[in-house]
């Protein structure tokens, strides 16, 4: 069992180290998030809508689109030079590869989500101080569920001739629960409502994340075989 | 294969006969609903079509799961035929729904949970076929499509719950749906005939498609053999 975790951490370490040195995906996702915030600012008519009322929805939309930008490229590096073959031929179980990819992507997306939270709090006057811990938990659970689904489908779309253009078509319908429960709980937490009011939403968000990770780990081997 | 074709013809004829009966019942026999009037009769097509499209994703996911396990091409063909039927019936739901909605609710579209769910289901089916057709290696496409069907079917309870949840957070105008145990006996009977008819029709069409796909793969095989 310790070998299993060692294998996972080796792949996670490789992915994060690559990211740390190239800063390719984190830079593009971070810049995307901030620029999306700037564009959202111009899409809100402040005479009819208060920005902080719609801010929670904007945070999640930015995460979904920005996340797809980064996670869609998960297997890009391995697609070059037959590196994917190398990983798959190594004596690592396929689900360990999947879990490692999910963890690396999660670290990435969770970092970006905290950036989005900070920047949007600044841009749209969101007051997150009252429930900061819970908001971070909600973002974490949402990121995990998103990353698990998107990583599985990124592996699929990388293997098709359509490539990344296929990813949103496959993932968006499945992400509806994450957006509903995520926005539902975060909107209320930002409005200063107590956690007990959104507990059901957060539980569902957690269940969705766990389900997505489990389904991905079980099905990933069928995606990358041969 | 002849058995499959015989079954297909039998079930489809039975389904078509049932459809005539259903249309007769819903146009002439069943009493008109008091609040909505004549437009409510679309209910007897709408609900059975919805039921069939959800049955279809279940069949497609089940066949896909067993396909990934046993790798029998027949199962993949069955999953594909079920998904195709599901796409057709979901399209029926998405056409009859807005038609009914325009008159009953005054709007073509509302984010009514079941309508939303069917729209998402429709997109899952579309994704299934896009993935299937977007690979150079057909076996890869079959595996990818199977994963899409399985994850889609697993996600449906979550989607269902979330869209209901969403409505409870943002109250919509009250939607009167003539459902539940309060349904009068003649309406319930018509609905049951509709459900039975659409299920039979689905399996009839499913078997036709399945037989066709079987023939197609046989032709492929023979062409390859004679080329070699």
Describe the structure.
With 226 residues, chain A is an all-alpha fold. Chain A is 81% helix and 0% strand. In chain B, α3 runs antiparallel to α4. The radius of gyration of chain B is 20 Å and the shape is globular. About 5% of the residues of chain B have low confidence. Chain B is mostly helical and 228 residues long. Helices cover 81% and strands 0% of the residues of chain B. Chain B has 2 domains: 65 residues; 125 residues. Chain B has 6 helices and no strands.
Quick rundown:
Chain A is mainly alpha-helical and 226 residues long. Chain A has 9 helices and no strands. Chain B starts with a helix and ends with a helix.
Largest interface: A-B, 29 and 33 residues
Low-confidence stretches of chain B: 170-180
First-last Cα distance of chain A: 26 Å
Reported for the largest beta sheet of chain A, the result is: none
**How big a fraction of the residues of chain B is strand?**
under 5%
Total number of strands of chain B: 0
Shape of chain A: globular
Structural class of chain B: mainly alpha
Radius of gyration of chain A: 18 Å
What string, H for helix and E for strand, traces the elements of chain B in order? HHHHHH
Q: Compute the gyration radius of chain B: what is it?
A: 20 Å
Biggest sheet architecture of chain B: none
Number of helices of chain B: 6
Features:
heterodimer, A: 226 residues, mainly alpha, 9 helices, globular, B: 228 residues, 2 domains, 81% helix, 0% strand
Q: How is this fold's topology laid out?
A:
The complex is a heterodimer of chains A (226) and B (228).
Chain A: H1 2-22, H2 24-43, H3 51-71, H4 76-79, H5 83-89, H6 94-124, H7 132-158, H8 166-190, H9 199-224
Helix pairs in contact in A: 1-6, 2-3, 2-6, 3-6, 3-7, 3-8, 6-7, 6-9, 7-8, 7-9, 8-9
Chain B: H1 2-29, H2 43-70, H3 73-104, H4 113-133, H5 138-169, H6 185-227
Helix pairs in contact in B: 1-6, 2-3, 2-5, 2-6, 3-4, 3-6, 4-5
